[in-house]
Amino acid sequence: MYINKVGSRGYVFTFDELKNTEFDCITNVYLIDGARHIFICDTFLGPKYMKQVKKFIDENLKSKPIIVFNSHCDWDHIWGNCFFKENLIITHVKCRENINKYALNEFIKYNMLHEDDVDIVVPNLTFNDKIRFDEDMVEFFYSPGHTECSSSCLDIKDNILFVGDNVESPKPYLTCNNIEKYIETLKYYIKINANVIIPGHGDIANNDLVNKNLNYIKSIKEIQIKL
């Protein structure tokens, strides 16, 4: 794991445990040290990794309630929820539904990638459009794209956007037939004009990568129209 500070109060924890697997990627967990709460965006593969994040919090930040956010239902973003099962865990209503539907099958399918202490813990607070913590200047909003249940986190104070798997390098990974919604999400990202884009996987980026992803998806749409 290595840590990058972003903005005045953000930290990106980057894990490479999936690098030498079929997925060949690094994974980011994003922390915002808010005024009243500490927010942790996605929880990677389990308590083994979230203990490292918690250790950093205990050694470097003031004690505050921790709120966890799941950007979408994929296994590599939720297995660490069980480390925070006593905390508030937020996600979109569709994400909670999909975790209930698919998490157990994914848990079995990718069993070689989790430790023995991993349990499936479902988020305990959901939203439909968005949920905002005004004193912390943090907002979570629905942003379908990589999945129908995807949502994003905006650090309003520093104008930093955590996009989960909706933005990837060199191109996005399409998992469902929702190209129109995906295009609208990426257009909205560009409208936000964030100073920093934090993807769920890969290097910290900016709107250049969002535009590349948008152009790619538009090209897929044009091919579908021709067919």
Written overview of the protein:
41% of the residues are buried. Strands 1-2-3-4-5-6-7 form a seven-stranded mixed sheet. The protein has 227 residues and is an alpha/beta fold. It has helices at 47-60, 93-109, 179-192, 207-226, and strands at residues 2-6, 10-15, 27-33, 38-41, 66-69, 88-92, 125-127, 130-133, 138-142, 151-155, 160-164, 196-199. The protein has a single domain (2-226), classed as Metallo-beta-lactamase, Chain A, CATH 3.60.15.
Task: Give the arrangement of secondary structure elements.
Elements: E1 2-6, E2 10-15, E3 27-33, E4 38-41, H1 47-60, E5 66-69, E6 88-92, H2 93-109, E7 125-127, E8 130-133, E9 138-142, E10 151-155, E11 160-164, H3 179-192, E12 196-199, H4 207-226
Parallel strand pairs: 4-5, 5-6, 6-7, 11-12
Antiparallel strand pairs: 1-2, 2-3, 3-4, 8-9, 9-10, 10-11
Short description:
Helix content is 29%, strand content 25%. It has 227 residues and is an alpha/beta fold.
Which range best describes the helical content: under 10%, 10-25%, 25-40%, 40-55%, 55-70% or over 70%?
25-40%
The figure for the number of domains is 1
CATH architecture: 4-Layer Sandwich
Strand content: 25-35%
Distance between the termini: 45 Å
Sketch the topology as an H/E string, one letter per element. EEEEHEEHEEEEEHEH
